[in-house]
């Protein structure tokens, strides 16, 4: 069946859909069509069962090694080891499952955009039915204020206008016609169609339903969202790669040491296998996935408190790496509220303060507030634009909204900003606005005289006022018009004509000549003031902002220049992008900051081109048309107030206050979170390194294992879940938002980090190994495991204070700023005392109660680690400074 309904005449559509534009369908036909086409709703996406979501959190190469270790210990009869290892794996999965929980709600979001009811004509009778009961061929009646229930080809359109910003990105209402269009017409130019999910701002209409459910334009966008491949975040990529690398190293090391132990030390193979399992468990940072999830979850909570709702955990970290933000113009960078900024009369220019539809502001001349009564031409202009007007502005829920056409609404607001009441005169006769003649006129009575007031496109009004081409007067007005269009403003002209008192009705012949031009109004969709500040902050942080809009290129460039978004004069249109190859798009996206007249496909192309260039891209948007690009981008950012539900559900982040500045705050938080994640890794991995070093040393030297697999697991989990948690609360370091974004290729473990991890691991492991023979001699084998366990825990506790400040001295004025560090330290000391002296805990971990003298060694090792690492940081910092 055809999708080019806009290019077919009505007789062909009636024949193809087997309907009648006057009588509508009969019930039998409705039933048959519903069986064939289904209901007017989008198909439900099959949901992943909860148990499967939970199981997916075991899909990690490090967890696989743990589970293999659990199976081996079970076969060897070490059931406590098995239980503890499985418990650790389950706890990790549980934390991931609870914290992540990313739900695919995009389909529900689009479904919510379908209107609930529709008025149809069936068998010549009108019926109010559920929108989901519509079928292709139904004849539908629509009026101002309705949400369009399906894709409709218009049969009649009486002053009908549709708000299609959410679908096409066009901020002004679209005048609807019924004529047949060229089959090349793009979505935004299909004026004989109404699209599902858009709304009507003016007039009435009648049309034939041509597409329902997933066959509508919204349904096609939904399908393109399902087809879009989601991108893995930098953190997920790097932790996956790190996990694979460490698992290969662990397995190779385990095999080599098992062979070495059998050949050179003639160990019992079962005992040796348990020791090798101890090594594997020691080297695996099993607490890392859990602590990463917790840190990201705390970042999510922090952002929610600052009006940015994150829908997925890793997206928090991705924000910190964003290099380009692709932003829609309408409603994101601008307010989506038309505003008159200037009024020009024959002798004067007036500035208008205030933005949006709220009637607060004033008219000023030469920076001084004016009395409108002192300027008769201005008074007449304001009376004209308020009278020749079918819209109104009202306050609803503490927000000023326009009822009707946005351009007319801002003219009402303009009149209401005057220092005196401007009358809205009664229209005795009118010529409605039509795009074919581009003006609207009204016959009124004012102060005993009959007048025709008119507003419309300046070029038409200039001719009606008899301004000859090339005349000084015409040149003056055209210059004023050009100045405003160059700033991205729409210009409306108003004129007046006094007519005979006997005039009762007017037609086009009454206004073609003899009009007196009153003035011009410059209208703009104003930028958000806070968005200008946000763009400035983005530039400081090394982030590029690109405007991708459905609006006209002159308007787009003017707004971009006004917001200091670009210093270039180049704008690329959607049709130009369509004609380019992938390589050309990758090049153009480097050179151009403003893209106009774009389609949903273009937005997707641009995001993909940026990603091909190695950029980490964010896409902000609020309309249905933004959804595929929101989902494809590394991070999609939807507007919470004006955003459509589908945009919110397709994105990773929703701005509660629609404030572009909130993005900058979120980026700041993203950078803080990433820094703290790196600090956490720098903290956790030396534990694993020290344990692995001790186990390898024992195997190579042929001495007794200092720790069992269960004891090693305990140390790993207790340091990760308590001490490491304190690092999540570290405040952002100074100068973080003045640095450029980190590269997506930047390694999680830099060469310096690798050095620090190895250095601290050898420092802790070497200290314990050095004192090990003395402990054996002094306290016996039974107590040595307990001392070793505490030595590892205390070394890490002190090391946490090293890590809080990456390269500078830790004891500084911010030392006590993070209270969580001291709280978790106290908790950890209490836990260590409990596992040492509470009988059932002793048994579980195979520990012994130790004396005060024996506690001396863990504390001294911890303190020694802190001092030596601080000296290392000081020396390293000096070396880096010289370089």
Describe the structure.
With 883 residues, this protein is an alpha+beta fold. The protein has four domains: 5-44 and 111-227, Calcium-transporting ATPase, cytoplasmic transduction domain A; 53-99 and 231-307 and 666-882, Calcium-transporting ATPase, transmembrane domain (Up-down Bundle); 321-334 and 528-658, Rossmann fold, CATH 3.40.50.1000; 339-524, Calcium-transporting ATPase, cytoplasmic domain N (3-Layer(aba) Sandwich), CATH 3.40.1110. Helix 26 (709-727) packs across helix 27 (751-803). The radius of gyration is 36 Å and the shape is elongated. 49% of the residues are buried.
Provide a brief overview of the structure.
The radius of gyration is 36 Å and the shape is elongated. It has 30 helices and 26 strands. The protein has 883 residues and is of the alpha+beta class.
> What count of structural domains?
4
- Main pleated-sheet profile: 9 strands, antiparallel
CATH domain class name of the largest domain: Mainly Alpha
Q: Report, as a whole number of angstroms, the end-to-end distance.
A: 70 Å
Quantity of strands, as a count = 26
Shape by Cα distribution? elongated
CATH superfamily of the largest domain: Calcium-transporting ATPase, transmembrane domain
Radius of gyration, Cα only, in angstroms? 36 Å
**What does the oligomeric state look like here?**
single chain
List unreliable stretches of 5+ residues.
102-115
Structural class: alpha+beta
Subcellular location: Endomembrane system
GO biological process, one term: intracellular sodium ion homeostasis
Protein name: Carbonate dehydratase
Keywords: ATP-binding, Ion transport, Magnesium, Membrane, Nucleotide-binding, Phosphoprotein, Translocase, Transmembrane, Transmembrane helix, Transport
């Amino acid at each position: 069946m055809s999708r080019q309904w806009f290019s077919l005449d009505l007789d062909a559509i009636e024949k193809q859909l087997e309907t009648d534009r006057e009588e509508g369908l009969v019930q039998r036909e409705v039933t048959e069509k519903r069986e064939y086409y289904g209901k007017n709703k989008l198909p439900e996406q099959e949901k992943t069962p909860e148990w499967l979501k939970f199981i997916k959190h075991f899909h990690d190469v490090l967890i696989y090694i743990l589970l293999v270790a659990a199976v081996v210990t079970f076969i060897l009869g070490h059931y406590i080891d098995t239980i503890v290892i499985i418990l650790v794996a389950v706890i990790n999965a549980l934390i991931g499952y609870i914290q992540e929980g990313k739900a695919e709600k995009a389909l529900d979001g689009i479904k919510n955009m379908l209107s609930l009811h529709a008025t149809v004509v069936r068998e010549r009778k009108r019926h109010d039915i559920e929108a989901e009961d519509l079928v292709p061929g139904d004849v539908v009646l629509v009026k101002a204020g309705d949400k369009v229930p399906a894709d409709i080809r218009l049969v009649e359109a009486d002053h009908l206008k549709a708000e299609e910003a959410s679908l096409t990105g066009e901020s002004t209402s679209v005048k609807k016609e019924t004529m047949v269009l060229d089959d090349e017409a793009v979505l935004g130019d299909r004026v004989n169609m109404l699209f599902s999910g858009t709304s009507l701002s003016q007039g009435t209409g009648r049309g034939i339903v041509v597409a329902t459910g997933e066959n509508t334009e919204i349904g096609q966008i939904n399908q393109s969202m399902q087809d879009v491949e989601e991108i893995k975040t930098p953190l997920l990529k790097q932790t996956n790669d790190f996990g694979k690398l460490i698992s290969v190293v662990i397995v190779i090391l385990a095999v080599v040491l098992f062979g070495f132990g059998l050949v050179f030390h003639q160990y019992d193979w079962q005992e040796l296998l348990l020791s090798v399992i101890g090594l594997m468990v020691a080297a695996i940072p099993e607490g890392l996935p859990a602590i990463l999830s917790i840190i990201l979850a705390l970042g999510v909570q922090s952002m929610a408190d600052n009006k940015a709702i994150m829908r997925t955990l890793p997206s928090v970290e991705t924000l910190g790496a964003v290099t380009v933000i692709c932003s829609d113009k309408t409603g994101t960078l601008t307010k989506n509220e038309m505003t008159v900024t200037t009024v020009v009369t024959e002798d004067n220019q007036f500035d208008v303060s205030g933005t949006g539809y709220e009637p607060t502001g004033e008219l000023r001349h030469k920076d001084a507030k004016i009395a409108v009564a002192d300027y008769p031409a201005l008074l007449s202009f304001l009376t004209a634009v308020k009278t020749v007007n079918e819209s109104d502005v009202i306050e609803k829920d503490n927000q000023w909204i326009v009822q009707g056409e946005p351009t007319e609404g801002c003219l009402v607001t303009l009149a209401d900003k005057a220092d005196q009441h401007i009358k809205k005169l009664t229209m005795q006769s009118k010529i409605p606005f039509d795009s074919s003649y581009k003006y609207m006129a009204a016959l009124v009575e004012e102060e005993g005289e009959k007048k025709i007031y008119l507003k419309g496109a300046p070029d038409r009004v200039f001719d009606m006022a008899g301004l000859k081409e090339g005349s000084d007067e015409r040149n003056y007005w055209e210059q004023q018009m050009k100045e405003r269009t160059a700033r991205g403003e729409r210009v409306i002209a108003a004129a007046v004509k006094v007519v005979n008192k006997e005039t009762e009705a007017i037609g086009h012949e009454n206004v073609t000549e003899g009009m007196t031009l009153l003035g011009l109004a410059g209208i703009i969709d104003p930028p958000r003031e806070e968005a200008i500040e946000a763009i400035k902050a983005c530039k400081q942080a090394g982030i590029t902002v690109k405007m991708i809009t459905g609006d006209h290129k002159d308007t787009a460039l003017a707004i971009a220049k006004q917001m200091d978004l670009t210093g270039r004069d180049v704008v690329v249109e959607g049709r130009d992008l369509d004609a380019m190859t992938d390589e050309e798009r990758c090049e153009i996206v480097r050179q151009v900051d403003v893209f106009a007249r774009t389609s949903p496909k273009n937005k997707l192309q641009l995001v993909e081109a940026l990603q091909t260039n190695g950029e980490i891209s964010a896409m902000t948007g609020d309309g249905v048309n933004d959804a595929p690009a929101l989902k494809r981008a590394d991070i999609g950012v939807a507007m919470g107030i004006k955003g459509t539900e589908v945009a919110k559900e397709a994105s990773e982040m929703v701005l509660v206050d629609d404030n572009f500045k909130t993005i900058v705050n979120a980026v700041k938080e993203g950078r803080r979170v990433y820094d703290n994640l790196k600090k956490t890794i720098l903290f956790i991995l030396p534990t694993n390194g020290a344990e692995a070093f001790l186990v390898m040393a024992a195997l190579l030297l042929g001495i007794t294992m200092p720790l069992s697999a269960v004891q090693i697991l305990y140390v790993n989990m207790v340091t990760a879940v308590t001490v490491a948690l304190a690092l999540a609360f570290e405040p952002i370091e100074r100068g973080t938002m003045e640095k450029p974004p980190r590269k997506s290729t930047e390694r999680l473990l830099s060469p310096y980090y690798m050095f620090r991890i190895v250095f601290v691991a050898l420092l802790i492991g070497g200290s314990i190994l050095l004192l090990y023979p003395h402990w054996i001699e002094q306290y016996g084998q039974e107590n040595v495991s307990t001392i070793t366990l505490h030595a590892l825990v205390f070394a890490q506790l002190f090391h946490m204070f090293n890590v809080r400040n990456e390269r500078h001295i830790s004891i500084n004025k911010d030392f006590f700023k993070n209270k969580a560090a001291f709280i978790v330290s106290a908790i950890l000391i209490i836990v260590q005392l409990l596992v040492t002296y509470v009988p059932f805990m002793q048994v579980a971990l195979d520990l012994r109660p130790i004396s005060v003298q024996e506690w001396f060694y863990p504390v001294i090792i911890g303190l020694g680690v802190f001092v030596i690492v601080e000296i290392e940081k000081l020396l390293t910092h000096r070396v880096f400074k010289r370089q």
